[in-house]
Amino acid sequence: MILYKFRNYTEATKKRTLEILNKQELFFAGIESFNDPFDGRVHLQFHGKINEIKAAQIRAQYTMNLKKEDKFEGITFEAAQKLVTEKITDEYIINQEEIDARISRIQKAHNSKGVLALSSKNDNILMWSHYTFNHKGVCFGFEFNCDTLPKVKKVKYQTHYDDIWGWLYTDEEIVDRILYSKSIDWVYEDEHRMVRDTIGVETFSVDSLKEIVFGSMMSREDKLEIIDECIKNGLNPMFKQAILDVKLFKINIEDFI
Length: 257
Known about the structure:
Helix content is 32%, strand content 28%. It is of the alpha+beta class.
């Protein structure tokens, strides 16, 4: 499956876009830099009776990996039970400072992740308008088969936040659920995400780049510059051209000539 990354190609963004070609690098951005303010908001429920909460926390603690001396060791069920019995009290579960501290910790863990946003579509009018400076940019099509890159996961679109019971899940499980949820208003993007533990770059193999689609308003000079960069760096994608079909409000993708 080919997944697409839309990029601007202005004077301010050209260098970073060309680094995709001359360094074979993709930037995994922090979620706080994304254009949707609802993206990545930690929203949790903490209600419940103490026996239910204890049972849920035993499950969460048992599931969670504890880091010790640079080795990951799963906590035993007995140890999880002892830990929860000692920690979870009537006072603890209504302590707003504890709840706020956990939400803050999860939000911080979430915001530290690096995310690569991709789409299954290369012909969406809004995508070209939002992410390529009025169709003057470019769209890279990748087919990843490299085990060294994070796995791709499809975003789930919905009308409301997940009702996540904060006592039941580990921090990482909560982060994972939130990272792949977005408002249904964005469903046209058909987004797929790669997520790594930190913000930064990942390299890809040259054969992963399958297509480059030029925006309908991109200058020929910019197109030739990108083609030349591909040749210099041993990249051999198919070059395509986005063409406006004004009769149908549609973008057609054709071979670049």
